[in-house]
From TrEMBL:
Residue ranges of every copy of the ABC transporter domain listed in the record: 347-580
Residues annotated as transmembrane: 26-46, 66-88, 145-162, 168-188, 253-274, 286-307
InterPro entries xref list: AAA+_ATPase (IPR003593), ABC1_TM_dom (IPR011527), ABC1_TM_sf (IPR036640), ABC_transporter-like_ATP-bd (IPR003439), ABC_transporter-like_CS (IPR017871), P-loop_NTPase (IPR027417), Type_1_exporter (IPR039421)
Protein name: ABC transporter ATP-binding protein
The ABC transmembrane type-1 domain, residue ranges: 30-309
Keyword terms, alphabetized: ATP-binding, Membrane, Nucleotide-binding, Transmembrane, Transmembrane helix
Record's subcellular location: Cell membrane
Tagged with keyword Kinase: no
Molecular functions (GO terms): ATP binding
Pfam families: ABC_membrane, ABC_tran
Membrane topology designation: Multi-pass membrane protein
Superkingdom of origin organism: Bacteria
Length: 599
């Protein structure tokens, strides 16, 4: 089955943020809870101590003691709150670091199709905006929310104990406000989802455009591209403004509820005080609790809205982790030794069909690449040549048919072992933004020494150019010291030549090479193919003329296979390709230009 178009039913793993941060840290959880409770209790007790202080002042007895108690309670609450917040924040940073590491690890393990579909920018947003939003759940969830809820409930209980009739009046005044807030919270969740998706999409587009900066500048498209990005940024801003409008409703609605309650209580409570049913201390304490009621409500509301945004980001992490990774040991028979079968061809395709989407790209492809020697694959652009290489690498799996690598079904090779048999130069000659040395030794268990690296560079005519770089082999490529297209291609070839892999896959390795370097390349390939298999995709017939075996692709099918001379007689398609190429080419275009040393 093709991994390109199917998304297997991967059970979505829930990410329990709080469970993750407290896993194995029970003591920390207990500590945070005790501190939070202490801070909340102190806040709750404070207005009661004010009442006591008032009475003490009235009775001129013990007010110094109550003043000290008030100061102690206030300082204690502040200290407990600060320590709990610090402990939690420190743990939160660890969680975010773990989440980032897990995201990067999972992104690197994704199949190529899934990674491309998700998009670089969108994946990068997980490390930035999404991680920050999840962190806010940690900062707020275990402290601000419980503290505000405990304070709220505790305040209501104390108010009820002070005077239940006044409490009923208070609740009535706040009821309508809470109804409005519930509706707003639900709507906000939807808005935050839209915002975070749109931010991911904006980042994705921005990264893609920055990667195409050369072309954008060459075609003076900065304004047009900037307009496109601006439209997306405005869409984000529009969503954010709508969310802000909803958030802005919350505090005034709570304040309105509080003011209505205040008027009702001053009227009701005042009348009862005049009648002597209510003493001054209780009335003042009740009023203080009423004023204190709005703060935990606002705190709880702001915690709920921030947590909503964090939960949307948590879902985005869950979605990422649910994307299927490449299966490193798909279908591997237990105990199967990942070794090539002696005497088997390097590659064999048997009736292979493949499609990236609906439209078939390869149809009933049968081909063989011998275990040693040079096999060339030719065909018009879009005929499926790179797709064949991608299937050998198992970047995708075929829809139908069987692919064997060194005598074993590709699907039965553990992925690492399979790719250990292959050296690959992709069409873009991709290099890492890293040193020349790391680029050359990529994937080598024991990195080759400098002498071997320089020899490989000499073989592709790059030794002098690399040693001239400011840090030689340790120069970082891609920043201030970039290479030309042809130099990149030659460096990628040197990397492949340094690999000990028994099968070398080259996707148009000469497209950027001048005639001198093309001759060098041909010699390099001849050398490698003496005792290994080389499968080269090439448009230049000069590269394939000497091949031991030629595969001709046409519209996703193998139209012919054989030696050059035979194909010239039997394959009109091949003959046409060769004639088209020969118009402007001599047999050995620039062999004479090579210096004695090069030869
Ligand atoms: N990642 C992809 N997603 C969808 N379709 C793709 C993808 N890669 C290639 N194709 C399509 O598959 C077909 C074969 O592409 P492929 O790159 O294998 O051809 P090719 O023979 O190597 O072409 P060229 O010589 O131009 O490099 C083309 O029609 C192409 O549009």
């Amino acid at each position: 089955m093709s991994t390109a178009k199917t998304s297997p039913d991967v059970p979505q793993e829930r990410l329990f943020i709080l469970r993750e941060i407290f896993r194995g840290r029970a003591l920390l959880l207990v500590g945070v809870m005790v501190l939070t409770l202490a801070a909340t209790s102190a806040t709750l007790v404070l207005p009661w101590t004010v009442g006591k202080l008032l009475v003490a002042i009235q009775e001129e007895d013990g007010y110094t003691r109550w003043t000290w108690i008030m100061v102690g309670v206030g300082l204690g609450a502040a200290a407990a709150n600060a320590v709990a917040t610090y402990l939690l924040s420190r743990t939160g940073h660890r969680l975010i670091c773990d989440l980032r590491v897990r995201s990067m690890h999972h992104s690197l393990g994704l199949g190529l199709h899934a990674a491309r579909a998700e998009g670089t920018g969108n994946l990068a947003t997980r490390l930035t905006a999404d991680a920050a939003a999840v962190k806010s759940i940690v900062d707020i969830g275990p402290i601000q929310l419980p503290m505000s809820l405990i304070t709220l409930v505790g305040t209501l209980v104390i108010m009820g104990l002070l005077d239940w009739q006044l409490l009923l009046i208070t609740l009535g005044a706040f009821l309508a406000a809470l109804g409005v807030i519930a509706v707003v919270v639900v709507a906000l969740r939807r808005k935050y989802t839209a915002i975070q998706n749109e931010v991911g999409s904006l980042t994705e587009h921005f990264v893609a455009m920055m990667e195409s900066l050369t072309v954008i500048k060459a075609y003076r498209a900065e304004r047009a591209v900037s307009d496109q990005l601006t439209a997306r940024a405005r869409q984000v801003a529009a969503f954010e403004t709508e969310a802000s409008a909803m958030e802005a409703l919350m505090v005034p609605v709570i304040n309105l509820g509080q003011q209505i309650a205040l008027v009702a209580i001053v009227l009701g409570g005042g009348a009862r005080m005049v009648d002597g049913e209510l003493d001054l201390g209780t009335f003042v304490s009740f009023l203080l609790y009423l004023f204190q009621l709005a703060a935990p409500m606002v705190m709880a509301m702001s915690a709920v809205t921030t947590i909503q945004a964090g939960l949307v980001s948590r879902k985005r992490f869950e979605d990422l982790f649910a994307l299927p990774s490449e299966n490193p040991t798909a279908d591997t028979a237990p105990g199967a030794a990942p070794k090539p079968v002696a005497g088997a061809p390097a590659v064999r395709f048997d009736q292979v069909d493949f499609a990236y989407g609906e439209e078939p790209v390869l149809r009933q492809v049968d081909l063989t690449v011998p275990a040693t020697g040079l096999t060339a694959m030719v065909g018009l652009s879009g005929s499926g040549k790179s797709t064949v290489l991608g299937l050998v690498e198992r970047f995708m799996d075929p829809d139908q048919g069987r692919i064997e690598v060194f005598g074993r079904a590709a699907a039965h090779w553990p992925l690492e072992a399979l790719r250990g048999q292959l050296a690959y130069v992709d069409q873009a000659s991709t290099l890492l933004r890293d040193t020349v040395r790391h680029n050359l030794t990529l994937g080598q268990d024991t990195p080759a020494d400098d002498a071997a690296l320089l020899r490989a560079l000499r073989d592709v005519g790059l030794e002098e150019e690399i040693t001239r770089l400011p840090d030689g082999l340790d120069t970082v490529l891609g920043g201030a010291h970039d290479l030309s297209g042809g130099q990149r291609q030659r460096l990628a070839l040197a990397r492949a030549s340094l690999s000990k892999a028994p099968l070398v896959l080259l996707d148009e390795p000469s497209s950027h090479l001048d005639s001198i370097n093309e001759v060098r390349l041909r010699r390099l390939i001849d050398g490698i193919s003496r005792d290994r298999a080389v499968l080269v995709v090439a448009h230049r017939i000069s590269t394939v003329r000497h091949a031991d075996h030629v595969i001709v692709m046409d519209g996703g099918r193998v139209s012919a296979q054989g030696r050059h001379d035979d194909l010239m007689l039997t394959s009109p398609m091949y003959a046409e390709l060769v004639q088209g190429q020969e118009l402007g080419l001599s047999e050995e275009p620039a062999a004479d230009l090579l210096t004695g040393a090069d030869r």
